[in-house]
């Protein structure tokens, strides 16, 4: 049998946590033959820690064969000890009357502390996925706070946007989601992102040509994918949780086990290509193999795409400027 991997999840008693933990313990993320030790982090607050205990009781009650052990933590320095994977979900939500700048700063404090803890106690090979918003900038902050760890191992979640775009395209072109290749979502996990199906195809057949409707792209597809999070809040009264957990599972699953040549979207530190300044955590197409992602290089960027890619980049640069004093 394989040795267990240590996986830390923050915000473990939250909404996304409630959908995420059970699937990780079931082997959906790291493989059906891979035992896990779950390190669950919540704020030290008694209510949150009690809620976490309740979730752990339910995990016990599932008797998952792959769940080797679990532990509850109120401090990142113990939660992140020797971990192989970190899924950083917990973040400060926007409170009533809170300015964007305040939200950025509150989260910058959390992700500075968590980056430092990763730097101090996690395995040197730890791979990190940031889900908590603003996800790209939080990942940037954690990366900058962990100078002894490889920068490439800090990523942000664009996979929910990618999956949302897949499902909209499949419905429009009457094709199966599983058959869609080469979809891209560029930029920030925010309504400014740019889902781009110019390269997408089904068995080599161009989806852009199949749909052949630029008007639909600009007036339906882009806003539907971009504002999907808001539409779900409006309908459900709560933000996306099961679909967000599912996207986190997909992201780490593919990073760990590979994509067999399929393109997926990950927010990764830029290497400077496509005009994205080095280090900015930006959604790009990648393939994964042997536990490493490889960015797809050399795609043609037309004028409209350039404009959209710069728009979402500028938002990231503004977010970065808003937290620069803390780094
Ligand atoms: P919840 O408020 O239900 O849960 C968050 C949990 O995190 C709470 O239990 C809280 O106590 C805990 N927490 C807060 N600060 C913490 C810290 N410093 N250390 C450990 N735990 C901490 O939110 P939920 O719906 O689960 O969403 C979590 C985050 O995901 C939010 O920031 C949300 O905006 C973000 N999302 C990101 C998505 C993405 O695609 N990247 C999509 C879904 C989601 O909106």
TrEMBL record:
Pfam families: Ldh_1_C (PF02866), Ldh_1_N (PF00056). Residues 159-321 form the Lactate/malate dehydrogenase C-terminal domain. It comes from Polynucleobacter kasalickyi. One of its GO terms (molecular function) is L-malate dehydrogenase (NAD+) activity. NAD(+) binds at residues 11-17, 107, 114, 131-133. SUPFAM superfamilies: LDH C-terminal domain-like, NAD(P)-binding Rossmann-fold domains. NCBIfam families: MalateDH-SF1, PRK05442.1. The lineage of its organism: Bacteria, Pseudomonadati, Pseudomonadota, Betaproteobacteria, Burkholderiales. Catalyzes the reversible oxidation of malate to oxaloacetate. This is Malate dehydrogenase. Keywords: NAD, Oxidoreductase, Tricarboxylic acid cycle. Belongs to the LDH/MDH superfamily. MDH type 2 family. Residues 6-154 form the Lactate/malate dehydrogenase N-terminal domain. The active site is at 189 (proton acceptor). Substrate binds at residues 94, 100, 133, 164. The keyword rRNA-binding does not apply. Its EC number is 1.1.1.37. One of its GO terms (biological process) is malate metabolic process. InterPro entries: L-lactate/malate_DH, Lactate/malate_DH_C, Lactate/malate_DH_N, Lactate_DH/Glyco_Ohase_4_C, Malate_DH_type2, NAD(P)-bd_dom_sf. The keyword NAD applies. It catalyses: (S)-malate + NAD(+) = oxaloacetate + NADH + H(+). Gene3D superfamilies: Lactate dehydrogenase/glycoside hydrolase, family 4, C-terminal, NAD(P)-binding Rossmann-like Domain.
